[in-house]
Each structure stands twice: as C-alpha cells, then as structure tokens.
Write a structure and sequence with these properties.
single chain; 939 residues; mainly beta; 22-stranded antiparallel β-barrel; five-stranded mixed sheet; globular
Length: 939
C-alpha cells in the first residue's frame, strides 16, 4: 500500500499544478534528422515576424501565439532549412507540426512548403521505423484508439509476425514468450510468472501506452537475451498543452451480460483487485508445527477454525462492464525552467461466463486414444470477474535546453475472481472404475506491479556528446490467496447399472497431497529488480557522419516463491464413511471440530524456492553513414551473467543449481538506400536465451490451472541463437509503406517443455539439440487518395501484414520424444489487417480490423501423449467514434464479432486440420462478442 500512497500523492500534486488554459494557441512538434530520426538538438523554429523556440533534448519545440495564420521557418546548421506556410493557430489549441530536416552542403538552401503539415502519431511512427537502426515494427497510440484493445497484449496482435497465447504471452516470429523480452520506457522487465519465462503483457493497460515498438533484430545497445522480439512499451510522455480528460464507458458480453452469473463470496478489497481480505490468517502456526498434528488434536482443530470456511455461492444477473479513465497533464515554470507533469488513473471491470468442454483420452492406451468415449469428458462452466486498475505519474524538469530529468511511475493491479463448476464423466475400459465427478472451484488472483524510473539526460553542445543515465526499480507481487476446490464423485454400481449418490472425495486421517482432495491453496511470488544504465553517444566528423556509442548496464533480480497447501479430512469417530450429505454451500459450516472435519497442512519442502541473478553488460558500437546511400551499424556486446536458485526436494534436501556465463555478442546491420524512401536492410546478430528461475529449480510443483505437475531441470544450459535478416522497405511522404522481410534463425540447445508422467500430467524442461526458424513477413499501409481526388478516398487508409513461418526442432536426447516437430507456439501464418476512415473536419473516425493466426502447438506431447494443437480462429473488430462540440467524443466498439469457439485438439488423422468427428477435442471454449460505448470529455 505504500507504493500506492506515494504514487497517489504524486498524481494529486500534478492536479494541483494544473494551470488555466490561456486564450493563446500553440505550434508544437518534434524536429528530427530525416536520415535517422534522431532529434536535432538546438534546431530552431521561428515564426516570421514573431517569436521562436529551440528544440530540446528530444527535438521538441513549443511556440505560444495569438490565434491566426502564420509562416514558420525551421533551421539547423548543416541541414536544408524548411518554411511552412499557412499554419493555422486556434485559441486554446495546439497545432502539431513535426518536421524532418535533410542534411545539405548548402546551408542556405530553403525548401518552401505552402500547405499546412499536420501528421498523426502513426505517420511519425512509420518515419521512425524507416530510420531505425534495426528491423522494427510498431503500433502507435493513434492506432490503438481505433481498436477495442484494452491491454498491451491485445495491442501486440496488430504487429506483423506477432500473436498472443493464453491472452497475455507474446509470440513473435513463431517464437514463444521465453524468446522475447519486455521493456518499459527503455528498462528491462523481469518475468512475472511463477512457472515460465515470460512477462504478462496484460498487466499494462493500453490506455497508458504512447507507442509499442518491437525490435526484431539485435544491436549492441540492446540486451542479448532475445530472439523473437524486444518489445519496448513507452508510456505517455509530457504533452505540449495543459489539459484534462475523463472517460466513462459501459460494455456488454453476449454470453454474460444480463444472464445468470454465479460468484463466490465477496470481500471489500475485491473491488480493486487486492487480496487483502483473503490472505492466510496471520497467526497460523508454521508448517513444521502443523504437519505432525493428528485428527482429533485440539490444536489442529483450533488452527482450522481460524480460516474462513465459507464455500457459499451467490447468483445474479451479470452487470454491464465498466470503464473509467481520468487524466491531467501540462507544463509550468519552476525557477524559470519548464516543468512537465502527467497524472492518470484508470479502472475497468468485466464479467465473463466461460463455457468449455474437454476430452482426456486414457494416456498410454492406443485404443483409448483413438476412441474418446473411453476417456474422460469434462464440461466446465466458469463465471469470471476481472478488474484492472492503474495509476501513472510522470514528471519532467528541463534545466536549460540541454538537460532533462524525468521521473516515471506506474502502478497496476490486475485481478481475477472466478467461480467454476466442473462435471467429469469417466468411462474407462474397466467398468468397475466408472465414475462421475463434480468439482467446485473458487479462485482469486491478484497481480500488482510497480515501476519507478529516474532518468537524467544531458547534451554537451560544444563536444557533441550526449550522456543518458537511468536507474530503475521494479516490484511484482503475484498472489493466489485461498484457491479452494471441492470434488464430489459418484461411483458406478455394476450390479444395478446405476450411479450412486455424490459424495465428497475425501479421506480420513489425511496426510499426503492429492489434487482431487478438498483443499486450500495459497501462493505468493515476490520479485524485485534493480537496474542501472548509462549510454554515451559522440558524434564525429568521419565519412558522411558517424556516431560512436558505448554503454554499461547492470540488473539485479531477486525472487521468492512459496506455497502453503491445506487439505480437508474427516474424523472416523463420527463420520464412519466419506460424507455424502453435505453440499458445497454448507459443508464445513460449524463442522471444523475434533469429531468431524479438520484442516491439515500438506505443504512440502519443495513448495518453496528463491533465486537471484546478476547481469553486468558493456558494449561499444558505431552508427556510420559511409555514403549517402549506405549506413552501417555494428559493434559487440559483452554480458556476464550469474544465476542461483535455492530449493529443496520433497524430502527436504537442499539443491542449488548455478548458471554462470560470459558471452560476446556481435552484430552488424547494413542499410542501403537504392533510391529515395527505399531501404534494403541486411543484418546478422548473435543472441541467446537463458533458463528462468522456475525452469532451473529441480523441484516439482502442482499447477492448479493446468492440473499438472511442473518439474524444473538443474542441468539446463543457455541457448545460443544466430539471426539473419533481409528486408526491403518502400515509404512515401504520405505515410504509406511496404516491406518484405525474409528471416532465418538457428538455435543451439533450445529449451523446450514436454508432457510426461504415467498418472497426473507432468511438464518437464530439457535442451533439444538444435532448431531452425525461418519465414517471411509482408507489411503494407496505403492511403486511398492514390486512387482519386475524391474527399471520401482521401479519408480512407488500409494497413495489413502477413507472415509465413516455419520451424523444426531436432530432438535426440529425450526418450519417447516426437522428432522434427515445429517449435511450441509457432504458427505457420499470422494475418492482421485494418480499414480506417478518418474525417477530421466532421469528427468521424472508424476502423474495421481482422486478425487470424494459424494452428500452433499448445502442449507438446510424446509418442504416447499426442501433441495438442490450437485451432485457428478469425477475430473481427469494429470501432466508430464521433467528436461532438469539439470536446466530447462518443465511441462505439464491437469486439470479436464472429465469436468463434477456441478449440484445442489432437490431430489423430494427421491431416493438419481440425475434424470434429475424426480428432479428439482436447478443449473447446465458447467465445461471445463484446460491445462497448464510451464518452470522453476533454477539459
């Protein structure tokens, strides 16, 4: 709560600084180098016959003017000057004028443009992608506004070659989350998951994001621990004008809103997604004291009575979903220097009924595998309530034109509150073992993230030297407080050919863990990351132009993960057999005592681990313009990495695997300009992928979400990856673009997971021998005004991307493995497209978007347990907005209009597609469509 209080005070402080909007208007923008999109520090923007301003460290300038029409000159030594005429300034409004200047020997050359230039963030991003040092893709804030995307995970689906698994994990170029890296405002984000190497992108609301850029090739100034994409999320920066806004919205879901919704009990802290009222009782005795206690022991009874044993359910008609956002931003003067601030808050919730079907063939039985009737069939109904909250406070102080200090802060909470009923029919070959099961699931999770970043940026004007230093602190807290499960079973009477009454699946004198027993599960994952970076860039007069860049990076992570698990048993003194007459609402009411039920701890020594890692890196690189048409970016990065994990076996023996490596990572990128606005890119880099804490811990954990055992492997080694890219790009001054990008990656010792185990499903990790990943990406954006001068055509644009990807994994070290299969999570194709209509004069904005991902491996199998594939589905979204009275915007969004089911299947007939009659449907989830109506008012 301390983090929340500090950030809330910062936002309140920002609100207190909000100044009254003057009657003047503003001309503002960014002045950049047309060749590399670097800010031109010190470039001037001057109004003819009036005032002017110099560009700061970010190339930004701001001129306050009385309403009217002006001519503006842009100049910088060594560059072609530009003059923009007919620039209209409106009272209280900001006219955005972003300018790119070209280098020229004739410093007095002037280019006169007689039309007003006002480009949106999408056009600016396209120019940045064109001039980037590496192969890059991205999504701007403008594009995000035209989609129903609520989180950065949703946004990522719009990027070429990218998709999402499990609604939150990034897959880039067919490579799963473990091969991708997340950054927030240029600072690396650690993994937020307990059982995989991944940063959950759904923890950052898209509302706070200014842009998302994905670097798909490496350069020495980027960390070497990625192969698919380096995802850099930039939160909103300090704007040019003082303003405030508020957004209120409501939404519906076709399978949920105004329909029956069943939920578990509710606490006060649930509203904002906090686990405060659900945590383990603070005065509970330790695991060592609890485990020796026996049924009937007074202390065991007393401990059990400290828990809340409310398993009741409440049913009601689901309310519409709610969204609330508010923000304030602006700038003022402190001691004669500019001080900028931005404060924002957001809250949203959603109700969702999820109906699913599952088939589990009898494992290891070839006949049963091909006849699903002989396996388990599960119907599951989940009522899920989600909340997302975020607070952001960004502050910036400029000292003169060449020094800026920034302090950026973000706090987010994402929670899930679910109640579920699972109905299982078991029909094994042995009729005597036939049974039915009914499970009741009570789940709550709370994910909190705090990010604090302090940045100091200074430019030495005479020396042409720029120094940028950043210090960051990251904190993640993932809690599953009191996950509860009740399981009832009805056995088949072979003599009477009927099923008996449902009885609680419980045992007397419970001692050992069994996932089918009534249970209470508590888990906590705490992780902190401290980092520091310093980058020094020096411009020198060599060849056409050369920037020498060197830097140092340090990151230290610490993680603690612990579980406490409790099982319900019964005392045979009063309950001679498993209880048959207690329903889930009242089963434990006043029955935790010496003679009836008791709660016994089943926590194992292996239900805990902690780890720490340290990364020290240094690099040197050169960005060299060899000829006007040839640019080379090359250098080397040195990374020294040490990671230790402390864990225990089930028997309590200590295990402490260590990973200690030093790696040299070279990279080179060539950019050739065969003609104006054309790029030919060729790049090579060596990168790597290191095992995550959990993959490295040699202990077994039970994962309630997948009903599986997860086992780490202490003998894992890092993966080495060679990357080659070739990309041809074409751009136009109207914001159009086209690119084609073949790529190839070779993996040595890739880390893979596999399904195993003869009973409960088990996931294990191992190093495969090698893998190859290759494909081609197509990306295009066009405006329809090229087809005619009609005003309608001038308002329409189309963007799309299509990726063809293939991969093979060679495995010869694991018995029973399926050889030469695709990489887990890799799709043979990824398709995104959007049709956009924008009428700025009348305030209309509309977008029609489509996304489709080819089938991919969800769960890796072996010779006995076939691979489970995720079937393709098409997602179509529609967004329409209208500006009313200049300050009020009404927006309507329809999401996932087709609402196709999400299907996971086993391809028994091996025809590479889903056949409802011929394949096993491992999982089937119903997807309804959503609608949202929101109102935004800008003050």
């Amino acid at each position: 709560m301390k983090h929340i209080s500090i950030l809330a005070l910062m936002i309140l402080f920002a609100f207190g600084l909000q100044a009254q909007t003057t009657k003047k208007g503003r001309i503002a923008g960014v002045i950049k180098d047309a060749a590399n999109s670097e800010p031109l520090i010190g470039a001037t923007a001057t109004v003819v016959g009036g005032s002017g301003a110099a560009a700061d460290l970010d190339g930004k300038y701001l001129i306050s003017l009385e309403p009217g029409t002006y001519t503006v000159n842009f100049k910088f030594i060594g560059y072609v000057s530009r003059t923009i005429e007919n620039v209209v300034v409106t009272s209280g409004q900001t006219t955005l004028l972003n300018i790119n200047l070209k280098e020229s020997v004739r410093e007095t050359e002037v280019v006169v443009v007689t039309t007003t230039i006002k480009k949106g963030s999408m056009e600016t991003m396209i120019k940045d992608i064109q001039n980037a040092a590496t192969v890059t893709s991205g999504v701007s804030a403008e594009q995000m506004r035209r989609t129903p995307d609520k989180t950065t995970a949703d946004v990522l689906k719009r990027v070429s070659g990218a998709s999402i698994q499990d609604n939150k994990f990034a897959v880039v170029r067919g490579l799963s989350d473990r091969y991708n890296l997340g950054f927030l405002n240029g600072v690396q984000l650690p993994s937020t998951e307990s059982d995989r190497k991944a940063f959950t992108l759904d923890i950052i609301p898209s509302f706070v994001v200014d842009k998302m850029v994905i670097a798909k090739t490496a350069s020495p100034d980027k960390p070497g621990d990625f192969a698919g994409g380096l995802i850099d999320i930039t939160t909103r920066d300090i704007p040019f004008e003082n303003s405030a806004f508020i957004t209120i919205g409501g939404g519906t879901h076709s399978l949920t809103t105004n329909k029956n919704f069943t939920a578990q009990y509710k606490t006060g802290s649930d509203v904002f997604g906090l686990a405060t009222d659900r945590i383990l009782p603070t005065n509970i005795i330790s695991t060592a004291e609890n485990k020796p206690l026996q049924a009937g022991n007074a202390l065991l009874t007393a401990e059990g009575q400290k828990f809340n044993h409310d398993f009741s359910r409440r049913s009601f008609n689901a309310n519409p979903n709610l969204t609330f956002q508010a923000g304030i931003n602006g700038r003022t003067k402190i001691f004669g220097n500019d001080f900028g601030y931005l404060g924002a808050a957001t809250f949203s919730n959603s109700y969702r009924n999820i109906n699913s079907f599952q088939t589990i063939p009898l494992l290891g039985n070839e006949t049963a595998l091909k006849n699903p009737v002989n396996g388990d069939t599960i119907n599951q109904n989940i009522s899920r309530y989600n909340t997302t909250s975020a607070l952001m406070g960004n502050f910036s102080y400029k000292i003169g034109d060449f020094t800026k200090i920034s302090f950026k802060n973000l706090y987010t909470v994402i929670s899930e509150n679910s109640y579920g009923e699972r109905f299982l029919g078991r029909l094994p070959a042995d009729e005597a073992e036939n049974q039915k099961q009914r499970s009741y699931i009570y789940f709550f999770s709370s994910n909190q993230m705090v990010s604090n970043q302090l940045n100091v940026d200074h430019y030495f004007n005479k020396a042409k030297l720029r120094v940028n230093a950043t210090g960051g602190y990251f904190y993640a807290d993932r809690q599953v407080p009191d996950y509860r499960r009740l399981n009832y079973q009805s056995l088949f009477d072979t003599e009477n050919r009927t099923y008996g009454r449902y009885q609680l699946f419980s045992v007397p004198d419970v001692r050992d863990f069994n996932p089918d027993l009534p249970q209470r599960y508590y888990s906590n994952l705490y992780e902190t990351a401290k980092n520091a970076n310093i980058d020094v860039t020096k411009s020198v007069n060599f060849l056409e132009s050369t920037d020498i860049k060197a830097g140092f990076a340090y990151m230290e992570r610490e993680r603690t993960f612990r579980v406490r698990n409790f099982l319900y048993g019964y005392n045979t003194n009063s309950l001679s057999q498993a209880p048959t007459f207690f329903g889930p609402d009242t089963i434990f009411n006043n029955r935790i005592n010496n003679n009836q039920f008791y709660l016994k701890e089943s926590t194992l020594a292996s239900d805990f681990y902690n780890g720490k890692s340290k990364l020290v890196a240094a690099y040197i690189m050169s960005d060299m313009r060899i000829k006007p048409w040839l640019r080379a970016i090359y250098g080397v990065r040195l990374e020294q990495f040490n990671q230790e994990v402390n864990a225990f076996t089930d028997e309590g023996d200590t295990v402490k695997p260590v990973l200690d490596n030093t790696d040299f990572l070279p990279s080179v990128n060539f950019i050739i300009n065969p003609r104006a606005n054309h790029n030919l890119r060729l790049g090579y880099s060596r990168t790597l992928s290191r095992p995550e804490f959990r993959e490295f811990a040699p202990v077994a954990f039970y994962d309630f979400n997948t009903n599986a055992i997860v086992v780490g492997a202490p003998n894992l080694v890092r993966t080495s990856i060679d990357n080659i890219d070739l990309r041809y790009e074409i751009y136009s001054d109207e914001g159009e673009s086209f690119s084609i990008n073949p790529f190839y990656k070779r993996f040595t010792n890739p880390v893979e997971s596999q399904v195993g185990g003869s009973g409960t499903r088990t996931f294990t990790y191992f190093n495969a021998k090698e893998a190859n990943n290759y494909g081609v990406e197509f990306d295009a954006r066009i405006t329809f005004k090229r087809f005619g001068s009609s005003p309608i055509l001038e308002r329409i644009s189309l963007y799309g991307n299509y990726s063809l990807i293939s991969s093979t994994v060679k495995i010869d070290t694991v018995a029973g493995s399926i050889k030469d299969r695709p990489l887990q999570g890799q799709s043979p194709y990824v398709f995104n497209a959007g049709l956009v209509y924008q009428d700025a004069d009348k305030g209309w904005d509309a977008a029609f978007t489509i996304n489709r991902v080819g089938r991919r491996i969800a769960y890796i199998g072996n010779e006995e347990k076939q691979i489970i594939w995720e079937n393709p589905r098409t997602i179509i979204d529609l967004s329409i907005s209208k500006v009313v009275a200049k300050k009020l915007t009404i927006r309507f969004v329809a999401g996932d209009i087709l609402a196709q089911d999400l299907v996971f299947y086993q391809d028994l007939n091996t025809n590479k597609k889903y056949d409802k009659g011929g394949d096993v449907t491992a999982f089937r989830f119903q997807n309804g469509f959503t609608t949202t109506l929101s109102i935004n008012y800008k003050f």
